[in-house]
Amino acid sequence: MKKLIARKLLEIKAVFLSPHKPFTWASGIKSPVYCDNRLILTAPEVRDIVERAIADTVKKEYPDCEILMGTSTAGIAHAAICGHLTGLPMGYVRSGAKDHGRANQIEGRLEKGQKTVVIEDLISTGGSVIEVVKALRDAGADVLGVVSIFTYNMKKGLDNLAANGIRNVSLTDFDTVAETAVEMDYIRQDDKGRLIAFRNNPSDESWIHGGEQ
């Protein structure tokens, strides 16, 4: 499944690799990869594969799940489609409480103790999904874990999730995408090394020059 999802994300450029002309993230970090999983929603064939994979992963990894919660905003559509496929209720968690109405941060009916799985599109350092899980736990939810479409497998992200007691299962990951991209002749074998060097230490830009300072 990991390789199939990786191939499909590369085909529709939901994951776009550019090891020789890096992107600049909002944090200022230079990156050889740009991920926009919103493109999945506009590619019906790929969308069907991804959403069924999310649903199958929820059922396999979290069989006791009682409700799905999408992250705002990218995880909402995926949680809704997964909810439809599994017959599970869903809601979503805002990045912050509304400043009007009932001032909700969590949208949808969530009962205390309800076994919850969070649906996220991608995970890098894990900061956003950790905040979502904290909000759900504060509301009394029993958060079983997370299902994400793509994870960078960065050490910082893995450490952050572990420190907060959060389990994440991703459909695919950075290493699988890099390997699949070589097999597809999307990038060269030596470019894969650059990608992994970035993944290992995003703040070290020596990968841009092929590992040379």
Assign a percent range to the helix content.
25-40%
Q: How many DSSP H or I helices?
A: 7
What is the distance, rounded to the nearest whole angstrom, between the alpha carbons of the first and last residues?
37 Å
Largest sheet strand order:
7-6-5-8-9-10
Based on DSSP secondary structure assignment, what is the total number of beta strands? 10
Strand count, sense and closure of the main sheet? 6 strands, mixed
- What does the overall shape look like? globular
Question: Per DSSP, what share of the residues sits in E-state strands of 2 or more residues?
Answer: 15-25%
Structural class: alpha/beta
| Arithmetic mean of pLDDT | 92
What low-confidence regions span 5 or more consecutive residues with pLDDT below 50?
none
Order of helices and strands: HEEEEHEHEEEHEHEHH
CA radius of gyration is 18 Å
